[in-house]
Structure formats: structure tokens, C-alpha cells
Amino acid sequence: MDLDGQLRGKKITVMGLGLLGRGVGDTKFLAEQGADIIVTDLKSSEELSVSLEQLASFPNIAYVLGEHRLEDFRGRDFILKAAGVPLDSVYVQEAEQAGIPIKMSASWFAELSGIPVIGITGTRGKSTTTHMLHAIMQQAGMKVLLGGNVRGVSTLALLDDATPEHCALFELDSWQCQGFGDAKMSPQVAVFTTFMADHMVYYKDDMEVYLRDKAQIFLHQKPGDTFILGTQCEAVVREAYGSNLSSDVVVASDATLPGDWTLQIPGMHNRYDAGLALAAARSLGISDEDSRVALESFRGVPGRLEFLREVNGVKIYNDTNATTPDATLAALRALPKGRVALIMGGSDKGLDMTELIAELPYLTKNVFLLAGTGTDRIKDKVRNTTIYSSVSDAVQAAVSVAEEGDVVLLSPAFASFGMFKNEYDRGDQFNVIVREL
Predict the structure, then answer these.
(1) Taking the CA of residue 324 as centre, how many other CA atoms within 13 Å lie in the half-sphere pointing to its CB?
(2) Other CB atoms closer than 10 Å to residue 253's CB: what's the count?
(3) Side-chain-side CA neighbours of residue 249 (13 Å)
(4) What is the pLDDT of residue 106?
(5) Under 8 Å between Cβ of 283 and 228
(6) Nearest to 215, CA basis, from 179, 241, 184, 243
(7) Could you give the CA distance from residue 435 to residue 135 in angstroms, rounded to a whole number?
(8) What local confidence, expressed as pLDDT, does residue 423 receive?
């Protein structure tokens, strides 16, 4: 897509470069468009070295690392804000008071491209639903650009490939939904999978504020747009925002999926996600025949109850993106009851672990804990367990007790900070260890 120099010479502050590739890709795209960029990040140059290397050739990027400065949020044309910036950030407030537009990558893409956008959010299930729908759209021969909260994908860089014949499919976390709220726009097709407690440290235990961010995915829809609403979160959405629903609402669940359709990935939660993907596909005019072919051949998303291999009759799964107790419970309930050697634990997110801890004796064979602040909170409530300071030691211990027909499962229920850079680093380390068994 030719932006006709819309960004050339524009003064843009990129707030948060990160290590996942999305921030790097967005910054590179803006630099290639000729923008005058300041990258500011609380991480040091040493911590960001991998990201910085990829931008070394651009003379139009200046860096302020290890801190933010108020002056970098004045006199700019745009602020591009990364996910997770505090709601009460004084730097964002400084820019807002000066009337500087605050952008986030997914909503800015929607503004610049003008092509139809399908957005999928939810506490759990958004990644799987997004990738299921992507597979369906590809099967149907549609031109689709996959982005948003997708590992390693720069959403702004997708503008290079966007044409009027394309539509965009975005996985949207609550922060990317914030961006749509700031832009006073919502995707033409919005999907809301589930709503559960998560990110409560960021939201200061306020579920209403968390829901408010998520709700931006549908609050600015227009008549004729479509809102796919999962049954798990239907009641809370209707109670809070029922009078604000102006689009066509379609309620969906696992019951939406025909009973004779078989999935390769286990668990009722995956059939639920497939039901929502099917409802979205129908709203796009895709035939059920194409949807069935795509869904029945879908092999899952890396890091989400991902089957890695079988060793001596023991199946091993990577569920590193299960960073809440609800997600870990969903994984355990999808696997043979009482046959799971579970590796869990990590950094505390302040979530209620009562139900998960109560179910562990019935759903698992053994539990192996990874060190972290969350682990410290629950360690005395988990019977016959050991805390490990390396994922390698935990895997070796789990494999040593697993017998033919058992399952070794990494499904942490906590965040990854401390032992790992992020949940992807945790999953990558696990994968390497499992491959070498």
C-alpha cells in the first residue's frame, strides 16, 4: 500500500521497543517511511541488544533507553504506544495534554489502510480462535493479513502488503483494544471469546476497567457490523454494555460446531474456540464445507496445549501460554485424568488459585513447580512437590516418574518473569529440552 508520504518527516516517539519483534518491525516500517523517530524504553541497551541490532542501519532513529523523558512526549506528531503502558502513565498524559495523538499498531493500521478488519479478543481462546479463522479464510481463498498480538509480526509492516482486496485478521489483547478505543473505532467483525480474571496487577484488581478495555472491540461498531459473542462472557457483556450494542450480535459456543466435526486438538475449550471461528466465518460468507476442511486439519497454535512428541509412550505438551489458573485447568481437563505430570509455577499475577489447587490431586499424577513469586504463594498448598530453579531439571524430574500412557505437561498458570524473558522464552527452552530427551 502506497501511503503517499503520509509519514515522511513526521516526528514519532515509539514508547516501548521490546524483544518480541513486533515493536522492532513497527519501528523499522516507520523509519522506512521516512519518519523522524525517538525510541524510548525502560530496558537498557544491553537488554535490548537483539532488537537494536535490527535497527542499526537507520540514521533517522534516536534512542532514549533505561528511562522515559517528558520532553520526548512534547512537540511530536504521534506517540506509538506499546502494550502494557500503565493507564496512569505521566508520559502519555503529557502527550495527551498537548493534543498529540496516541496510537497503537493494530488500530493505526486500520486507520491507515482503510481495509476491513476482523478483531478477536478474550481472556482465553483468542489466539486459537484467531488462527482457526485464519486457516478457514485461507481455505476459502480469501486475501487475509494476520497480525495484532501475533509473535514476531509487525502489524504496521503489513501495510506494505495491503491492497483493497485484502482484509485484516487481528488477535487483540486488552491493550490493543485500548488503541481502538483511543481511535473511536472497532473492527467490522468483532469476536469476544471469554472474560476471566487476568492482568490484575496492571488493572489493580478492577475487573470493570479490564472489561472496559476489552469492550472497545465492539463499542464503536456500526449497524451492519457483526459481533460474535461467546456464551462464556455473554452475561457480563450484556449486563455492562447491552444498551450499547448497535451491531448484529451472534452468540456462539462449542454447540455452534456440528457434533460430527472432529478436531485434532483435544479439549472442549478448543471446540468452543472452533465454534466461534465458525460463526465468524459464516458472517464472512464462507461455506461450512471450507470451514470444516480447515478446522478438521487444524493442528493448534505453538505454546497452547501444543503436542510436541511421544517418548516411551509418554506424550509431552507445551502449554506455556497458559498464564492463568483457568487456562491450566482447561488443559488438564482435556488430558487423561490423573495421568498428568504437571510442570507449573512462576511469577505472581495476583489471581485466585483456589479452584486449580483443589483440582490438582484429581487431575494430575505429580506436580513439579518452577521457582517464582507465584510459586512461593502456593507451594505449601500443593502436596508432595519440589521447586525447581531450571526448566531442564523440572522436565527431567517429570519424565522420570511418567509411565506409558502418562502425559508430561508444561502449563504454568503464572507469568514467566524471573526465570525467563517472557512466556515464549519459557516455551522455547522447554521445546529444546524435549527435543533432546
Answers:
(1) 17
(2) 18
(3) 16
(4) 97
(5) yes
(6) 241
(7) 27
(8) 87
* Distance of alpha carbon 412 from alpha carbon 409, whole angstroms: 9
Cell representation of residue 269? 475449550
CA count, 13 A, side-chain hemisphere, 47: 15
Task: Decide: helix, strand or coil at residue 218.
Answer: helix
Q: What is the pTM of this model?
A: 0.92
Contact between 377 and 349 under an 8 Å Cβ cutoff? The reply is no
Measure the CA–CA gap between 278 and 310, rounded to whole angstroms.
31
* Cα-to-chain-centroid distance, residue 68: 26
Q: Kindly state the cell numbers that stand for 168.
A: 485484516
Low-confidence ranges of the chain (pLDDT < 50): none
In which element (H, E) is residue 248 found?
A: strand 248-252
Q: Is 63 helix (H, G, I), strand (E, B) or coil?
A: strand
Cβ contact 193:254 at 8 Å = no
Q: Which residue matches cell numbers 456440528?
A: 258
Residue 22 and residue 104 in contact, taking contact as beta carbons nearer than 8 Å? no
Question: CA–CA separation, 147 vs 118, rounded Å?
Answer: 10
Residues facing 36 on adjacent strands: 11
- Rounded Cα–Cα distance for residues 157 and 3 (Å): 12
Among candidates 206, 230, 204, which has minimal Cα distance to 218? 230
Quote the CA–CA distance of 325 and 373 in Å, as a whole number. Answer: 15
| 234 and 251 Cβ atoms separated by less than 8 Å | yes
Q: What is the identity of the amino acid at 218? A: F
Q: Is 429 helix (H, G, I), strand (E, B) or coil?
A: helix
Q: How far is the C-alpha of 173 from the C-alpha of 291, rounded, in Å?
A: 25
Nearest in space to 324 (alpha carbons), one of 360, 348, 359, 300: 348
Please give the Cα distance from 393 to 82 (Å, whole number): 35
E strand or H helix that includes residue 168: strand 167-171
Question: From CA 394, how far away is CA 94, in angstroms rounded?
Answer: 46
pLDDT (0 to 100) of residue 21: 80
What pLDDT, on the 0 to 100 scale, is given for residue 422?
84
Give CA–CA dist 379/369, Å, rounded.
Answer: 8
Q: How far apart are CA 84 and CA 415, in angstroms?
A: 14
